[in-house]
Amino acid sequence: MATVKQAGRERVPPHPDVRTISLQQVLEALVDPVRRLIVSELYAAPEDLSCGTIDLPVSKSTATHHFHVLREAGLIRQYYVGTSRMNALRRDEVDEAFPGLLSALVAERDRA
Amino acid sequence: MATVKQAGRERVPPHPDVRTISLQQVLEALVDPVRRLIVSELYAAPEDLSCGTIDLPVSKSTATHHFHVLREAGLIRQYYVGTSRMNALRRDEVDEAFPGLLSALVAERDRA
Predict the structure, then answer these.
(1) pTM
(2) So what's the pLDDT on residue B1?
(3) Which residues of A touch B98 (CB under 8 A)?
(4) How far apart are CA A29 and CA A70, in angstroms?
(5) Average of per-residue pLDDT across B87-97
(6) 3-class secondary structure per residue, A61-97
(7) Per-residue pLDDT tens for B99-108?
(8) Does B81 lie at the interface with A, CB-CB under 8 angstroms?
(9) ipTM score here?
(10) A104 vs A30: CA distance, rounded Å
(11) Closest-CA residue to A5 (of A81, A98, A90)
(12) Is the pLDDT higher at B77 or at B112?
């Protein structure tokens, strides 16, 4: 069991400090509607979601790319539970760095 | 004088209803740093600004393009005073349609 846990830790991808991310990078991540959809789903969900749980209108490999961009932009945190890659919105950190931005995106969800 | 006024009216370009603008279009406008700079300057200014008043790191024709994109995205209102093209941020309308978005941009200004 200890070995499995170790392997899981090794597979945690790198995450940037949100305070080092520019609004430019965040906007480039969020200008894509599929990536906004992922953020909205994570915002609305009561718990972290695995990649497969979020219904997206793109192929699995494209979805993986979008999750990657969001992670690099400091918007989500990814980790493994067994073989599932889980996703968490870095809500508090993003709210602190970019006040108002996430609520503007959620407003889109309510509007649609 | 009446003729001059009439001519001025004819030169007012079309402005979309902000409620018909999608967040997608607004984000595509705001993902450009020069356009965000224009919005920030208009946000901070106590009055409407002519195009030439805003110091931008681009050519005049490129600046004209950026103002055009912002107008089409419902973010600014343009009108003429004599030969000066004036720009006003459509702040109340944008705040109503996209709550939190402008304040997130202004936060960038404060951060920089």
Answers:
(1) 0.85
(2) 44
(3) 104, 107-108
(4) 6
(5) 95
(6) HHHHHHHHHHHHCCCEEEEEECCEEEEEECHHHHHHH
(7) 889 988 876 6
(8) no
(9) 0.83
(10) 11
(11) A81
(12) B77
Of all residues in chain B, the one with the smallest CA distance to A25 is B31
Residue in chain A lying closest to B28 (CA):
A31
In angstroms, the CA B109 to CA B40 distance is 7
Decide if pLDDT at B89 tops 90: yes
Q: Is B100 left (phi over 0), alpha (psi -120 to 50) or beta?
A: left
pLDDT given for residue B105 in this prediction:
81
CB-based contact B104:A99 (threshold 8 Å)? yes
φ, ψ at B36 (rounded to 5°): -65, -35
Phi, psi of B83 (to 5 degrees): -100, 0
State the best of B36, B108, B109, B110 to mutate against chain A, taking most chain A CBs within 10 Å. Answer: B108
Say what percent of chain B tops pLDDT 70.
86
Contact list in A for residue B111 (CB cut-off 8 A) is 23
